[in-house]
Each structure stands twice: as C-alpha cells, then as structure tokens.
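Title: Prediction job returns without error message
Component: structure pipeline
Severity: low
Priority: P3
Assignee: unassigned

Description:
Job completed but the reporter wants confirmation the result is attached to the right record. Sequence as submitted:
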Amino acid sequence: MEEHKKQQLTEAGIHVDSGLSRFMGNEGLFLKFLKKFLQDNNYQGLIQAVEKGDVREAFRFSHTLKGVCGNLSMEELYALISRQTEYFRKEDFQEGAAMMPEVSAAYEKVRKAIEEAV
C-alpha cells in the first residue's frame, strides 16, 4: 500500500497494520472490504432508528456496525460505537442518541478517507 494512502486511513482512525493482519496480509482483500464498507447500510439504519426513537433497532444496527468496524480495524469509530451500543443495550436511549454527532463525525472521517485512499 502506498504510504500516503496508509497515512490517510490511519489519520481517519483505521489501524491499517492490524487490519492487514486480520486479512492474513492480503492487502487486496482488505481494500476490497474497506470499499464494501461504503455500501454497508447499518449506519443509515442506525440514523433512522435514532430518529424514530427505537432503542431496540438502534441497538441492532449499532451492534452490527460495531462488529464491522472491529473487523476492519476502524479503532476510533469502533470505540465510539462500542460505547453507544452499551447504552442502547441497557435501553438508555437518551445517552446513546446523544452520541450520534460524535459517531457521525467519526463515520464521515472514515468514509471520506476510504473514498480518497482506496
């Protein structure tokens, strides 16, 4: 991977070396799954669930997104989504929903970096 692309991804909170390790060093496969992340609907589902005030759906989408972020070594977004998921798991909708601006900012940072670097 070109160093400037790796740097872009790293600055967005993606631990590239860890991600490559999860994909057994297969850079092409790792990049393929980063591209697939851009088509994943869980973030949009999370937004809709929060807008509807549906804590169970918000939990389902945040939990799934947490797994995707973990598998792709999106460490910053993963940490935020993990905290948010726990709020929704405890049915503390207000605290989970209050995290949306921070989650959205981290998500957009990751999305933009992937679009530019991959």
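Comment from assignee: result matches the submitted record. Residues 3-117 form a domain with the Four Helix Bundle (Hemerythrin (Met), subunit A) fold (CATH 1.20.120).
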